[in-house]
Amino acid sequence: MVGRDDQLRRLRRLIDGSEPSIAMLGGEAGIGKSRMVQELISGLPGAVPILDGQADPGTLSRPFEVLLDAIDSCHRSEGLDPELLEVVTDASRSMIDRIQAGLEIVRRLTTPGPSIVVFEDLHWADSESVALFERIAELPGSRLLIGTYRPDEITRRHPLADLLTRLERRYTVSNVRLERLSLADTSMFVKSATGRAPAYRTALSLHNRTGGNPFFLEELLKANGDNDLDTLCDRPLPWNIAEAMRRQLDELDDEEKRIVEAAAVLGRKVPFDLLAAVTGFDEPALIDGLRDLVRRGLMVETGDDEFSFRHALTREALVDEMLARQRRRLHELALETLLSTGSRDYALVAHHARGAGRYLDMVEAARRGLHVYMGMGSPYQALQLAEMGLDELPDDVELLSCGARAAWLAGLLDDAQELGKRWLGAAATHEERADALRLLTRLGWEIGSSNTMQERAAQLRAEIAHLDDGPAKAHAFAAIAQAYMLHDDTERAVAWADMAITLGEELGMPAVWLAGKVEKGCALVGVAAGVEEGIKLLNEAAQEAEEAGEWLIAARSMNGLYNLLPGGPADWAAALEKMRTFAEQAGFESLAVAAYFQGRARLAVQEGNLAAAIAELEAARRRDRGLLRTRNGSDYHGVLFAGLLLEAGELDKADMVIRGLIESSTDAYTMLTQTSVPGLQFHLACRLGRAEQARELLRVVLDAVRVTGISGRDFAHDLISAGLAAGLSADELRPLAVAIDDPLFDDAYRWLADAHIAEASGDLADALRLYRAAVAEPTMLLPAQRGSGHLGAARCLLALGDADAAREHVRAAEPHLARWAGWRVAELTGLRGRLGLATPVAAGAAGAGDEALTPREREVAVLLAEGLTNAELARRLYISPRTAAVHVSNILNKLNLESRTQVAAWVRSRPA
User: Which helix (H) or strand (E) is 146 found in, with range?
Assistant: First the structure.
């Protein structure tokens, strides 16, 4: 069901309706229509009547075969009146009688209550079953009628074509179209099926080979067995797929076969003019041939004068059958055509040069194409060209340097490291060594190894002594400044950045002095006294880099700047979009995708919108290729995502993400995750009420904190809150507050942590003072933490006997937590009750409370309205009963309701 969540949700919503519903599920062969139907059915209670009939090519001449198959699938069919079955199968009876009998059978088997009737593969169904399908739509009752079909097999003369038109005119039909999987979905499919995340190359190869067709993917995975996933790129096609692909060619005439054979060799996307030159066909003849191939569904027009095979596996099967000499001759013809016309499609030139065995031409095309594709923001294409050239010239410094940088920009860090080390080994001059070390220093940070980054930076500093005051030294200054900035050594970062700026200006190298400004600005914005100057420098760098076309520097400037700009969330979001545009122009994957979505999530947190923040990270994880290895391990968003899930009370889901972070840890697992992942484990144990486990994990956290310090401003506050909720004492948790010894740490967060400890120790007056200081303006507290500060003050005031002042703090907390969820909102609801305050959301009002609930809580509320127990909720949603109970409690608290019956009434009162 990878990539099918939205479609499955649409179908599930149709089941809940009180009126008959119709859904037509369309998609090509192997796309997952039957799998979708089975997934829908498997999530239903066992008592729901289901009729699921399957057509096949042999049913066209057997009237009502689909209905008879559906009857066999229904658990109620044993008590069916045999006379009705006899009427349906009696060829001597009139068609009207037989259809009426069929309708009566369906009515009896699907009433009372909600039910599902499925007619699968209607493109093969007999006309009588198609007619019956239409009549079932007329039956009263709560029934979901689903028909599946292949759109490309429906001609104008097919009975289903008229049926689809009539259904649209007479009923509200939900048309659900299953498309091929995207590259990200293909990667997720492989990971789900094998438990192993594929490398980017493997995912891309599989996506290109299968076109994102789930059936083809599954067959290739089966054929691969337990072998390394990387072998999937070169593994021959399984015989059943190869045979199915070749059968498409059986009816082609000789000229059409000549066209498809040439197209198969020419590549995935075939230009019309190149195909004409290689085949020797004139334009009208080639147009006629291609038109017929498109009509047959064998090829598709992918752009102006560009064609591809509908299934890449068809091309692969064709190439496998051709003689090597035949393939080489076609490559030679293509290469000569491209060279004679002066083609600047260097990737295509290199591809055909290699296929023709003309390796000098291949290397020349690779060299020319490298810089073109890097300038276009296409680093992966540049990497492929570099690797083609390196197959012939493995120690070529130009190819190694371009390849390493391209791999880094594309987010392929393993490849970047390998090529970077080869580049360093092949370097013949100090300048070349310095350039290689610059990239390797950055890569140390990217893979999460602080030690590696510092070692490479030390090597680079030593290399500087051998350099003249030229470009290599200027770039090295900027690289060392960046290393110090990333290591939070502000003083040294500023000093080296100043040297880079000075030398860059002397040499007239904007790329260097702008990089120096970025490193200096990023270092200064982390220091309270330097924020203003840092913002000014980043602003200047962003504007000047945009003017100079230095897109990578412009993107990094905006990434460090967007949420520090004057204005509000709308201005920050606009700046984030600008950052993404710059990153895309530079081809810098980690800023264009990963950092962009994480930035959107952080902006949502700054607005106090927890559901939106989680949704952004879920979207990011769907798009994330699972291949970016950064300081958070293979899951770039994992630490932030798990933290937000803990906030929302999604404990099972948070546990799964945390386990994934631990499993993906490597030797480079030393920076942010050294404290953050144990902190998340501690927080989870506390929320699950596992106090002893939490105590063990607290020791791990404190050991890490002694080495790294507190890793985030809200880290101590979150962990202390969780520990107190689990019953840990103030003395046990006090070291977390004491560990906030960084003079640059925001005082508001320090006061918040100290207030928790003081309150837990019984020193209410000091706790109240600290809570009030924390929430006072100006402060950097985020809305959720500010809300918690007000609630802490309210608790202290209530315990001190000042209920009126406590109410004021509760009211002050409400807008900060209005779009939040989980334990903070539960605390707010509890204090409202103790102080006699009504919930701001009027319980029972139509549509009230929707914004108060998370998407998962709204889903749980709908299921509660069906009368499900916690155990049934757990089975339906694939969560534990404990998590189900937490959701139910949150719903009751947020809506200020007292029973499941009231929740059901609230659900029914909402507008559709």
Answer: strand 143-149
Angle, CA of 744, 750 and 756, to the nearest 5°: 170
Instruction: Summarize pLDDT for 614-648 with one digit per residue, the tens.
Output: 988 887 877 664 443 444 345 778 889 999 999 99
Q: Give the full edge-to-edge strand order of the sheet including 270-271.
A: 270-271, 306-309, 299-303
Q: What is the CATH number of the domain that holds 120?
A: 3.40.50.300
Q: Mark whether 678 and 784 lie in a shared domain.
A: yes
Contact yes or no for 869/852 (Cβ under 8 A): no
Contacts of 81 (CB under 8 A, 6+ apart): 108
Q: What are φ and ψ of residue 53, in 5° steps?
A: -105, 140
Q: Which amino acid is at 606?
A: Q
Select from 468, 475, 448 the least CA-distant residue to 552: 475
Is 353 within the bounds of a domain? no
B/e letters for 201-221, b = 16+ CB within 10 Å, e = fewer, are bbbbbbbbbbbbbbbbbbbbb
- What tens digit of pLDDT does each residue of 177-215 get? 888 888 878 888 888 888 877 877 888 888 888 888 888
The strand pairing partners of 24, in sequence order, are 147, 175
How confident is residue 481, by pLDDT bands cut at 50, 70 and 90?
A: very high
746 shares its domain with 616: yes
148 and 92 inside one domain: yes
Of 800, 823, 839, the last residue of a domain is: 839
User: Please, which residues have CB within 8 angstroms of residue 74's CB and are 6 or more apart in sequence?
Assistant: 49, 50, 51, 109
C-alpha span between 890 and 884 (Å, rounded) = 10
Percent of the chain scoring above 70 in pLDDT: 92
What contacts 551, CB < 8 A, 6 or more positions away?
377, 545, 582, 583, 585, 586, 588
Interaxial angle between packed helices 346-355 and 359-375, expressed in degrees from 0 to 180 and rounded to the nearest 10: 160
- Over residues 812-826, the mean pLDDT reads 92
Residue 211 lies in a domain: yes
Choosing from 235, 256, 279, the residue where a domain stops is 235
d(CA 48, CA 804): 54
Residue 793 resides in a domain: yes
Residues 6+ apart with CB under 8 A from 684: 646, 651, 654, 655, 658
201 and 333 assigned to the same domain: no
Residues 801 and 850 in one domain: no
Q: What is the tally of structural domains in the chain? A: 5
Domain assignment of residue 802, yes or no: yes
- Domain ranges, residue 211: 183-235
> What does the alpha-carbon distance between residue 861 and residue 888 come to, in Å, rounded to a whole number?
8
Backbone angles phi, psi at 157, to 5 degrees: -90, -10
DSSP-assigned beta bridge partners for residue 306: 271, 303
- Name which residue leads in pLDDT, 359 or 233: 359
Chain mean pLDDT for the chain: 85
d(CA 141, CA 22): 13
Statement to judge: residues 697 and 671 lie in one domain:
yes
Residues 757 and 642 in one domain: yes
Burial class (CB in 10 A: 0-12, 13-18, 19+), 371: middle
Looking at the structure, do residues 851 and 909 belong to the same domain, yes or no? yes
- Say whether pLDDT at 845 is over 60: no
> What is the DSSP code string of 660-725?
HHHHT--TT--SHHHHHHHHHHHHHHHHTT-HHHHHHHHHHHHHHHHHH---STTHHHHHHHHHHH
Residues 6+ apart with CB under 8 A from 372: 344, 346
**HSE-up of 562 (CA within 13 Å, CB side)?**
27
Q: Read off the DSSP letter of residue 79.
A: G
Contact in structure between 553 and 519 (CB atoms under 8 Å) = no
- CA-wise closest residue to 252 among 242, 260, 244: 260
Residue 549 has φ and ψ, to the nearest 5°, of: 75, 20
Rg of the chain (C-alpha set): 32
- Domain containing residue 912: CATH number: 1.10.10.10
